[in-house]
Amino acid sequence: MTTLKTLLKQGPGPELAFLPEADPEQIAEHLVAFANAGGGTLVLGVHPNGAVGDLFLDESVADALALATSLCRPPVRTEWQQVETPGGAVVLLRVEQSPELHTLADGRALIRSGQENRPVSGPELQILSANKATGDFETQTVPGASREDLDEEVIQEYLEKRQQRNPKGTVLPTDKLLQQIGAIDEEGAPTVSGILLFGKDPQVYLPHSRAVFVKFADTQPRGPEGSFGYGRREEITGPLARIVERSWRVIWEEMDKKAVVRGLQREEETEYPPFAVREALVNAVCHRDYRLKGSSIEIRMYTDRMEIISPGGLPAYITVDNIVEEHYSRNPRIVNGLYQWGYIEELGLGVDRMIEDMVKAGHPPPEFEAKPHRFTVRLYNKKDPSRVVPEWEQDMNERQIKAMQYIQTHGSITNREYRQLCPHVGAETLRLDLVDLVTKGLLLKIGDKRGTRYILK
Q1: What CATH number is associated with residue 452?
Q2: Inter-residue contact 24 to 67 (CB < 8 Å)
């Protein structure tokens, strides 16, 4: 079970929000926004800085939650628990990603975007609605599969990892938990997510759920002799956790490595930052469209780049332009499964760090290419020592780096200019970005109100 201390350290984000007061209308907005996006946790009764707000009794929580739920169309399913703190009781309210499109009583549809809930309308709303209408493919049972097709050893490993991540969580009987997470139905028949996560041989039923690794000896698909072909090809099968492990093992074997000495420590420097590669790999496994039966995940290693190709376009309202800030998964049960397993560190934050790690190491940022039935991440190994990010820049997010580059070119930046640079990000998030850069001593704030601008300090 995640502790309040951990949540406060993580801070507000795509899957976490804080409300110091039990305002039913504000609760309803968060319920709808989380359900329409990737799910999340709402902490009631505490400020983001840890200061306690309203104190709660069971009855007041239930009343506020019932009223909030009545403002959602259709009602949003939630789970909540009360946590005692030295300052009083706070409530952790968990909302899962919903297969339905939810709106508020006044007709507004919201999604969680960064640290804010933002409205969606027009074409974006149509795309979101269409994605919701596809149904919950993960919980469909697999024809011909039975409970005996699930691997008890893999299930036990998952249970142990889950308990380590949530040491205070309730321990349920195995089949009860599998049913709760959508791996089996009430009769014990495996679902799509159950077979993919725990199957003895998932590819018997879902042959396209494999991954294929290919290494080329050129920047084009050529073999060692210069003819079209490949130097090494591996077909990687098994449940999803094993696919992640085995794919990473092959990539690690094929990546160039060298020893470097920093201070008195000898370190191994890899061709690509390990986190960036693992994040691209895990994302492909988590977010591919498993309804597409003709394609598998492809990992292509060329002499100048690595490409990880995932079948299926970007889901719902996600685009290449907003992929860092927005969060939505077409496979929430698979995502949660691999999160509990430990393959995902913090939900919703991996792409941001992938970009940061590539840039820190002196590589170009990853390239993202989205086509209707395929999504590709390209990592280039063109390391330029002059591109290595100094220590003082390494805590900046991608938006802040854009702002710093803009100031270096134009001499200053205003809030309005920053919003034009990042049109898909909320105004309050951007304001906090600039405040953070001032706090770090990188920028100086000049003027007040509408005349405010920021320059390099």
Answers
A1: 1.10.10.10
A2: yes
